[in-house]
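seq:
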Amino acid sequence: MRYSGAQIIIKLLEKYGIDIIAGIPGGANLPLYNALYESKIRHILVRHEQAAGFIAQGIARSTGKPSVCFATSGPGATNLLTAIADAKLDSIPIIAITGQVSSSLIGTDAFQEVDTYGMTIPITKHNFLVKRANELLRIIPEAFRIATSGRPGPVVIDVPKDVQAEQIEFDSWPDKGASQHANRISGQSAKKIAQMINESKNPLMYIGGGIIASGAESLVYKLAMKNSIPVALTLNGLGAFPPYNKLYLGMLGMHAASYTNFIVEEADLILAFGVRFDDRATGHARQFARNAKIIHIDIDCAEIDKIKKTDFSVCADIKEALHKIIPFIEKNERNVWFSQIRSKKKKHPISAPKDKLHPVNIIKEISNLVGPDSIITTDVGQHQMWVAQSYPFKKPRTLLTSGGLGTMGFGLPAAIGAALKNYGKRIVCISGDGSILMNIQELATLAELNLDVTAIIMNNGHLGLVRQQQEFFYDKKYIASKFPARHSFKKIAEGFGVRAFEIDSEKKAHSILAKALTLKGPSLVDINIHHAYNVVPMVAPGKSNLEMIGENTYE
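struct:
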């Protein structure tokens, strides 16, 4: 067989089941696009490379499978960096294939040359600079193995233009190979963990995105129900436990319901499963769960004892670990513990906002209008936290949000990616007027694809979470958090070919949302909300989770 480097890449992507690639062509990756022309792989032409990375994330986050994006050299590659870093912090398996200037020009400051390999070392699980076309027969399978094995993450493959064009002879395609097995929990460790759970008085599960990545949500449910263990979730863990179950405590941390943080602090045993003790979840780490023993199970050995010292830990896949632990777990009603929990909930209730156009009420209305299989994407800011607090995520992979990096501009392209692989489901992007502008050009991509995506903009004319922190922590010295100019997002969307609506009164809210969320094809709803609404409660950065501002009192 005789193929060019570019043809080898495309053929191997086909063999790995890749059927959609988002990207933008340029001089340094045109050989790759020339090879793509002969392929059945569908290409999504985005308007900005960052969006290509987030479309890939939307695919990977919603399916649990690796996805691919393309960019050319120089600015094409640098525009991808934010999406790659975002995938690294949230453990998302994407493979970014970038064009590079020809090998003879590397290091000469050639036109559109940057050191993609060097820049992506800190923000990838692994990266490659391909020297010869024959290396691709090893590198492409290795990239898929690395991206999906153990703790998932992004991989970058930087391919010089001459390597893409190089023709080579070879006899056979490489085997796909098996994924690398994670460390396994021993029977002795499983018995020890079960013993600690059985002997505890007030156990509590603290679960995160690792549960969803592993597909362990049903086992978490089984363990919780068998031993009556309440469950608190991180932002990226939402959807891993049914929200209307009596054991459900919702999200913990900076913007948790206040009773959740108080209940966590009364636990005598914390089961930290698939989490990394992120500061937004734990607050001041030393003051987190001070009276509790901690059991930590995570697939990434580097996370064990990195932030919070544990009493017992295992580096293993959580799904495999729970399979071994559950048979040793005793049934327990824990009536005394749940009496304490009911008392905390009664003492620190969640008050509902009165304004029907308050984002919390809008989000609840959206949840009533769409099915449990609908996928919600968010951008980053107040709207993101209101969604986390108020939307009842009943299934895993139905919330796609930028957790670790907190990237404004994530929501719309991620929604496009989710819609491409989840035909028949309504995809809702909940954003703010600040965030949507970061990648608003992708409304053009959305219109071209005619996907069932509805963008909901919580429009308060501000960078809301910045304004809120200035109010709480900077003596109300507001600077660079207000947008003096008001934009007509309705007209902007219509200019891109997307049907759009505006809500500025309670009377219209239900009917407009109901229409937008059932229309075939894309739509956008611009909702005018009061600029002074805050996300409460809030824990100041670096403070204990018990030092909450606002409790659960909405204006």
